[in-house]
């Protein structure tokens, strides 16, 4: 994440390091922060700076030399990574009980960011996820066994994984969702994606690539993230790689990476509350409404306050026209959102 960022009407600047900033720039350095490990991380040759907008490059370089030129490089450089993911020889399974909706998470070891197979895995993930994706159409709309589903590639710097997940609908078990997810994977392994479906996903990527160029701050963050992995050039090169993915590529990676013995599976069940311990907010709600409230509580924990305020406005607008059987549910949602933004229920 960026450690320093500032913006003007014409330009946006950010400095990023694997450990936030050079040690020489950090006040109050302690003995611990002066360790050899800290010296490797908090070094000028482990910092990326990004300036986006209307500016004079020569002037920007002169200012950088003036304020940062005194900092000395660390001659050691970054040490090589020695610990890598151990090859999976059999499926791993975990079962847990928690205050959550029943759900399943499945992860397959895949590829690191920049691997030749990553573009095909990214496109495959987009084919599965979203409201127009295969998972939502099959598990949510047709089979009606899940409330939400997702899938996608997560390529990190050294390793990567492909994750499938689904929240079971009340009355359905996470095992049902798990088996339905496998069936969608099997379809990709046995049948090639149609050219029309593939082009639709590529069109979505092209539109997203255009939108991400519209704001300086967003562009700056994306360039820094690209630089911290494979270099900023990948920001320009990756769209072409996505466009070059074929139906044959998708079928090949589906067979290569989605093997039963490679996956790790986690099944989560709702922890049954002891008598008198159930959340009072859930009293009087049906099972489906309780599941929606639990999902909302998890979402609110990560939701910005401004977004919560917008949600509150939407709930207040719905209260007047809601049928009597939905009044209590909307009041519960309203109470949770008000607690999030610090208002009185």
Description:
The protein has 345 residues and is an alpha+beta fold. It has three domains: 65 residues, no CATH class; 176 residues, Metalloenzyme, LuxS/M16 peptidase-like (Cytochrome Bc1 Complex, Chain A, domain 1, 2-Layer Sandwich), CATH 3.30.830.10; 69 residues, no CATH class. The protein contains twelve helices and eight strands. It has a five-stranded mixed β-sheet with strand order 4-8-5-7-6. It has a three-stranded antiparallel β-sheet with strand order 1-2-3, covered by helices on one side. A hairpin with a 3-residue loop joins strand 1 and strand 2. Helix 3 crosses helix 9, helix 5 crosses helix 9 and helix 10 packs parallel to helix 12. It is globular, with a radius of gyration of 24 Å. It starts with a strand and ends with a helix. The relative contact order is 0.12.
Determine the CATH topology of the largest domain. Cytochrome Bc1 Complex, Chain A, domain 1
State the domain count: 3
What percent of residues adopt helix (DSSP H or I)?
40-55%
SS elements, strand count = 8
Largest sheet: 5 strands, mixed
> Can you identify the CATH superfamily of the largest domain?
Metalloenzyme, LuxS/M16 peptidase-like
Q: Which CATH class of the largest domain?
A: Alpha Beta
The CATH architecture of the largest domain can be given as 2-Layer Sandwich
Radius of gyration: 24 Å
What is the rounded distance between the termini?
A: 35 Å
Please give the oligomerization state of what you see: single chain
Placed side by side, the strands forming the largest sheet appear as: 4-8-5-7-6
Secondary-structure element order, N to C: EEHEHEEHHEEHHHHHEHHH
- Global morphology: globular
Number of separate helices = 12
Q: What's the rounded overall pLDDT mean?
A: 84
> By helix and strand content, what is the structural category?
alpha+beta
Beta fraction of the residues?
A: 15-25%
């Amino acid at each position: 994440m960026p450690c320093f960022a500032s913006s003007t009407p014409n330009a946006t600047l950010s400095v990023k390091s694997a450990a936030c900033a050079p040690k020489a720039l950090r006040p109050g350095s302690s003995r611990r922060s002066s360790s050899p490990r800290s010296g490797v991380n908090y070094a000028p040759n482990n910092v990326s700076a990004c300036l986006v907008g209307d500016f004079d490059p020569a002037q920007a370089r002169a200012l950088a030399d003036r304020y940062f030129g005194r900092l000395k490089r660390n001659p050691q450089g970054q040490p090589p990574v020695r610990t890598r993911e151990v090859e999976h020889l059999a499926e791993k399974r975990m079962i847990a009980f928690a205050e959550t909706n029943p759900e399943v998470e499945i992860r397959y070891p895949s590829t690191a960011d920049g691997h030749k197979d990553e573009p095909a895995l990214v496109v495959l993930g987009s084919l599965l996820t979203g409201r127009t994706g295969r998972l939502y159409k099959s598990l949510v709309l047709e089979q009606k066994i899940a409330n939400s589903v997702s899938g996608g590639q997560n390529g990190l710097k050294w390793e990567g994984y492909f994750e499938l997940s689904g929240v079971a609908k009340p009355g359905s078990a996470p095992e049902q969702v798990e088996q339905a997810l496998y069936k969608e994977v099997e379809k990709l392994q046995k049948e090639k994606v149609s050219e029309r479906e593939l082009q639709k996903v590529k069109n979505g990527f092209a539109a997203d690539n255009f939108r991400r160029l519209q704001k300086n701050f967003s562009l700056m963050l994306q360039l820094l993230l690209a630089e911290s992995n494979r270099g900023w050039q990948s920001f320009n090169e990756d769209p072409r790689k996505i466009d070059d993915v074929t139906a044959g590529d998708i079928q090949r990676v589906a067979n290569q990476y989605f093997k039963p013995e490679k996956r790790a599976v986690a099944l989560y069940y709702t922890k049954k509350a002891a008598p008198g311990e159930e959340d009072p907010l859930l009293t009087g709600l049906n099972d489906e409404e309780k599941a929606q409230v639990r999902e909302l509580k998890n979402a609110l924990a990560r939701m910005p306050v401004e977004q919560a305020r917008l949600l509150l406005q939407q709930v207040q607008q719905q209260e007047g026209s809601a049928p009597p059987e939905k009044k209590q549910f909307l009041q519960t949602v309203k109470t949770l959102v008000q607690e999030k933004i610090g208002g009185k229920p």
